[in-house]
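tool_call: predict_structure(chain=1)
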Amino acid sequence: MQKSFLAIVVLLLVAGIAAAQQSGMSDEGGRVMALENAWNHALEAKDTKALDMLLANTFVSVDIDGSISSKSEFLASIKSPDYQPSQAVTEQSTIQVYGDVAVVVGVFRIKGTEKGKPYVHRERFVDTSSMEAGSVWPRRAR
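tool_result:
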């Protein structure tokens, strides 16, 4: 599972850089966009190990209802058998890179079933990533 996730991230990084070059986005912006896509794929697959790798230990999530959860609470909610996402898509986003920090602002759509009821949520988000020494944008906070 870990190897397949890493292969997906590498593939997304390459695709992100190629898309960034075509759109005039920086290489760093393309890498951050690839991590956004990896986040979406990990949510769809309920891959908490991949999400754990993507999220900083200080991660805080503000949910659609205004509630706040820590990294461990967020990962536990993804593991819940009641939560069954079928699609997670970033519909639009802008990326600004400020040295070793990147800020992504966009619109995210996720659909699936929760507690047996279908849902489609469309949310605005602000993601903040910071590059750790010697790494390439490995952690995120949302």
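agent: The beta strands are 60-62, 68-70, 83-98, 101-114, 117-130, 139-141. Proceeding to next step.
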